[in-house]
Please model this.
Amino acid sequence: MEQHRAQVGVGGYSAWRARQETLVELIDRLTPIISGLSIGSGVKKLASVRTRAASEAFKVMIVGEFKRGKSTVINAMLGDKVLPSFARPCTAIINEVMWADQRSALIYPLEPDGSAGDPIPVGVEEIVDYVTIGADDDNTPNPYQRAVVRWPLELCRNGVVVVDSPGLNEAPERERVTLAYLEQADVLVFVVDCQAAMSRSEQLFLDVHVKARGHEDVFYVGNKINLVEEEEREDVKREIRKRLGPYVSRPDRVFFVNARAALNGRRKGEPDLVGDSGMPELERTLEEFLTRERGRAKILSPARELKYLLIEAREQIDRKEALLTQSVEELRGTYERVQVPLTRLEQNRRVIVAQMEGHLRETRGEVEDAGRRFMNRVISQIPGWAREYDPANTLGANPFKARAKMEAAVKEISDHLAGRIQIAFAEWQEKELKPLLTRRVEDLERSIDDDVTQFVSRIDEIRASLTRDDAETQLLKSPDKASAPLERLLADAVSFVLDPGTALTGGRFSLKTMLTTLLPQIAVGAIAVFVGLGPVAIFAMLLGGNLFRGALQLNKANQRMKEQVAEQVVEELRNRSDADVQNLGDEITRQLRAMRDAVAQGLDAEIKSIRDEVGEALRTKEQGEADARQTGADLRRYAGELNRIDEQLADLIMDVAL
Model:
């Protein structure tokens, strides 16, 4: 295989993998210390962090409309014909290709709740029977959730999972499969055909679905450049770049390739054929992006959570050592003394959580009001959109072709209206919904800030009172923990209330940064609420209506057809408007409750940690001085190991950050 692929990972994938292994080793060394110190949910949190750190793979998702050559691009990247590629739409479910020493395949059945069932091993040569679409199958749901192909290919050895997806704008059931997977991808590779690039539906996909999910770094691949006449290629490239202009974040994100030549060259061992295909340039840029930009986030996010646990462990060691200097009688008195202020803090916790819930209800009201205004605005614009549109399909005089021509014309008009609705919805999300949510979350932070600050301050006072040290001396023992009160609570709980795949990857822990993480999920949920506004769904609705019943007079048909389509779309939107707005409120409230849950869990953890620390010290002393001395020795050993872990973690963070 060509030189580049032989060297893949020397400073990219393999370097990132080495950093990942270092991080996992540090987590494994810290885990018994956290367990020995009995730090609340620390062990559970470390297990969650370890799972993410150890299993994080780079998911490269190939998307595009059918017949663009997606599967051929994947096979070219893999160096073998792993996935099926036919002239007709063929991919019915998500196909993940990952590393294994031996070739094998798994099929995951689709459970009624949408989750994956237990995997079923199948032969690699049989995979085509499970993942492809029958010639007469237009929209039948596949009984399988996804296929996993394990293959001994170098690209996947370094933690890269290449994902093939059903074609867009081909059938709504399969398009939903692709859209549901988008937020899991680290990078999208959007494949277009150089012979027919950037159709209206392709632009709609980028406007409505890609931007909404926060995918700013998309790689655009013009495939089949070899099929364009040589003297026309530069003009074609220039035109494609122009059409991609509104979507491309950087000029080096557009590539023109001959994927089939790259595949054949790799299968036959002909490096010149591969080198001239354009694929190596795409692969090198992908590797740099994944290992430097995405890889940095994948290491720094769990490393940062590890840092918080190290700080907490050091503080606990100091407090435990101080508590062990007290007698049994003193510790019993201390335990009884802290119950009254802790009970008051539990009441304060309930007040804070109730205040957040009330704020969320108000936010929901504002979201639903904004949603109604959007729906009313769209409804008022639909007739004008229909009048302005000049369809290519029109009715003719031949009565035998009247219905077919009418269906073609109505589909074209409904596609146009659906596209206008979806673009309007995407613009509304960006210009109105997101600013509304940002303003409400900022207001929420301000509204609870004083109560949270007082809560945390009181917690620190109680902790300081546990030992003979005065409060000022006790607080000075934790110079590293200079975070704001709310950040401190969120740092302790955020990994339990957010999906592991959406962990915070930069900046400080705050409700606003949580919102930034949640916004792509909110956008996905909002799109799901309005899924019935898509082109296929609107056309299906029209087919079930009165539009095709009875004949229209030819001299009125073409001008009335647009009016009738618009009237039925308006009627449908009016009928479903209230339900859609309510569902939108439900979805956004559900997502935003992650903030309330994170704060609540952080407050609970602070209270529980004090009871646990004093209670554990009391039990140790009651068992005798020998146990107390052994515990003291363990604490000193933990402290030494914490220092070593901290030094290595700091080196790792510095290495990744630079």
Observations:
- The radius of gyration is 30 Å.
